[in-house]
Amino acid sequence: MYTITSNVLSKVRVPAATIRATMENAKSNPDGNQNILMMRHGDRIDQIDPLWLDTAARPWDPPLVQDGMVRAFRTGQRIRSQLQFPIHRVFVSPFIRCIQTASEVIAALSAVDFDPNATSSKDVTSIDKSKLKVSIEFGLSEMLNSISIKPEIAPKGGKFDFMISDLEAMFPDGMVDHNVDPVYKEGKE
């Protein structure tokens, strides 16, 4: 058994109504334990095509390649079929690769009908929006890590300019929870 500690998740402030709803869901878990599942993003374009950096408007924020999207969706299917507990909440970094990964995983987790032949969220005809909620958390990013985001590709002036409304639109309507108070506010360094 592993204990996972995080400086970010312990500081996330969740409103009382969300806590009550979570506690209602926890009644099916009599020992009161919470399960944490962590994953990284799928395959990024800059890892497949190094020339992408030369023309990218946002070289520090590479999207997934199609195989990365498929792998993320398939991972969501495996989690859905093999995990012995439900997932109620997803915290995701604001980088596009992480949003795309989470979007595909969530589509697989929340699909009304499980189709083992589906390969992406485009194959999902109906999503159960009541299954889980998503929160974009700036604290789950590598903004200040000069190893992950090399200074030569980091945005000039250190301003990352995430288009939050565009990122939120990648999730089904009603799945993004705006009631969670993030650890790091948008635009903070």
From TrEMBL:
Pfam families: His_Phos_1. InterPro entries: His_Pase_superF_clade-1, Phosphatase_SH3-domain. This is Histidine phosphatase superfamily clade-1. It comes from Arabidopsis suecica.
